Amino acid sequence: MKPNTRPANPCFSSGPCAKRPGWTPEALRGALVGRSHRAKVGKQKLAEVVNRSRALLGLPKEYRLGIVPASDTGAVEMALWSLLGARPVDALAWESFGEGWVTDITKQLKLKDARVLQAPYGALPDLAKVDWDRDVVFTWNGTTSGARVPNGDWIKADRKGLAICDATSAVFAMDLPWDKLDVVTWSWQKVLGGEAAHGMLALSPRAVERLESYTPPWPLPKIFRMTSKGKFAEAIFQGDTINTPSMLAVEDAIDGLKWAESLGGFAALKARSERNLAAIARWVGRTPWIDFLVPDPAIRSSTSVCLKIVDEAFARLDEEAQRAQVKNLEALLDKEGVAYDIAGHRDAVPGLRIWCGATVETSDVEALLPWLEWGWAELRRSAAA
Ligand SMILES: Cc1ncc(COP(=O)(O)O)c(C=O)c1O
């Protein structure tokens, strides 16, 4: 039987993620449309995003935070192209996005002294093997596998290299040890449910020092340049963006930050995400056909929750047929209007991925679960027919 209750918001995509509860386009009413982002009022809006983000996250005051082009990818690549090459590099990858940074480092930048520490979907590489005399590039939360690093204990306080961290699906939902991270990147469309296209780039004083003391041997497009005549371009980190941002997206980012403040700040955001994960964990515990893709709870993501189907008949199918089944389940629930975009990432092992970031209500996660049961039973029924 079809469940009686539907999620009030069926958006469970891992990016762009659900808008905050109660969001309507009315939230954009104050947007500075038609005005220059370089006008005093425009710069104030950009600085507001930076300052509210800093306060919410407890960013150390000596860290710089800027709005940069091209979403999280733009922020990461800006950092890689500008900073790497001064030291040997350790690049960590355990899913698709980390693999992407490995490709940048080994095939595009072609860094000779690069070590790649890899792990399959569901696991992490051995963090004890990381050499902190090197620069280290890693993802805090692997969005496509649902595996995150457990904490920052493995990062050396007295490291010589830079810790360069893609934190886009972690920030605002997971504790980040800021003093152990030299570069942290994220976008707006994840935990706070903002709009895509703009990246955030946080730099420690050591990262700034690297920018001023090292010039990479390759050309740097304007969009990546953070120095001018060898000096760090402070203005970029005070709301003076390199190129034109969307003032609509900026307004929306401010709306998300204000919403987060109204809940009580970072601790409340983290608690919402953890509660969502706990709701799924209770269901997984009592449901024989489903399990977490990540067996170890200590490294299990609370935002991009990835699930594998452990049903025997499903296990006997080849990968293509498994993917088709997952797509059918997704389409069935989409048609019912109860869940959108819940198939795992195309690079991951076939399964489900349910975004559980702070904008998702636990009541919606709880309402979704019986629909997953129903959808799965429907698929079994049609397979048996
Ligand atoms: C860990 C991680 N890195 C990078 C990206 C790419 O982000 P964007 O599309 O904002 O550039 C994503 C997107 O989901 C991600 O989850």
Attribute tags:
385 residues; alpha/beta; 7-stranded mixed β-sheet; 3-stranded antiparallel β-sheet; 9 helices; 14 strands; binds pyridoxal-5'-phosphate
Written account of the structure:
The protein has 385 residues and is an alpha/beta fold. It is 35% helix and 15% strand. It is built from 9 helices and 14 strands. The chain has a 7-stranded mixed β-sheet, with helices on both faces. The chain has a 3-stranded antiparallel β-sheet with strand order 12-13-14. The protein is globular. The two termini are 18 Å apart. 46% of the residues are buried. The model has no long low-confidence stretch (mean pLDDT 97). Bound molecules: pyridoxal-5'-phosphate (PLP).
Helix-strand layout with pairing:
Elements: H1 40-57, E1 64-69, H2 71-83, E2 89-93, H3 96-108, E3 114-118, E4 135-139, E5 141-142, E6 147-148, E7 163-166, E8 183-187, E9 198-203, H4 205-213, E10 227-228, E11 231-232, H5 247-263, H6 266-286, E12 290-292, E13 304-309, H7 312-315, H8 319-335, E14 351-355, H9 362-384
Parallel strand pairs: 2-3, 2-4, 4-7, 7-8
Antiparallel strand pairs: 1-9, 5-6, 8-9, 10-11, 12-13, 13-14
Helix pairs in contact: 1-5, 6-9, 8-9
This protein binds pyridoxal-5'-phosphate.
